[in-house]
Design a protein that fits this description.
5 strands
Length: 175
């Protein structure tokens, strides 16, 4: 049997799903499925840092869970940020810099710097990106308006949406 696909998660998948689309108290099966397949789910360090950033100051565990429930859930389920060794990190940062120049990142309508880093990371490791960003069937006139799916298409990096695509694929693997 071949190795299962590894999915590289955009922060919006977790944040929006947890707080808006699929809160764990209403959709526990979604979060159980993610926890079950956590070995196939990768969150690069800068993306992980976008999710409820907190310091390790003297805050009780109960207060932390109350204030940062998603981050605490990730840590409890052994989701850890994917760290990259020096030489590979340098190559990813170089690729991200090139992509940033090509796609003029920094515009609020298009991909941001962490989005570009996510794409470079996924490309380097052969991962499929998972995002909630919608496909752009019409190419915007300005590259600064390109979002993750369009940049992935242009760069040949596979990407999928969250609920229908990723969850269905993971559910099929579980059976």
């Amino acid at each position: 049997m071949s190795n299962p696909i590894t999915y590289c998660l955009d922060a919006n998948v977790l944040i929006t799903s947890w707080y808006q689309s699929y809160p764990p108290d209403l959709f526990p099966c979604v979060w159980k499925l993610l926890a079950y397949h956590q070995s196939q789910l990768v969150i690069p360090q800068p993306i992980f840092d976008e999710i409820e950033p907190y310091s390790n100051n003297a805050i009780s565990q109960n207060k932390r869970k109350e204030k940062y429930p998603l981050k605490c859930w990730l840590e409890e389920k052994d989701f850890h940020p994917q760290k990259v060794p020096g030489a590979i990190a340098d190559a990813i940062e170089k690729k991200a810099f090139e992509l940033g120049r090509t796609y003029e990142t920094g515009n609020s309508k298009g991909a941001g710097q962490n989005d570009i880093l996510l794409i470079a990371f996924a490309e380097r490791h052969g991962h499929t990106i998972v995002t909630l960003e919608a496909d752009q069937p019409q190419e915007p006139s300005k590259k600064s308006d390109y979002r993750i799916p369009l940049i992935c298409k242009k760069e040949g990096v596979p990407w999928i949406g969250f609920f229908v695509d990723l969850l269905r694929k993971l559910k099929e693997q579980k059976q």
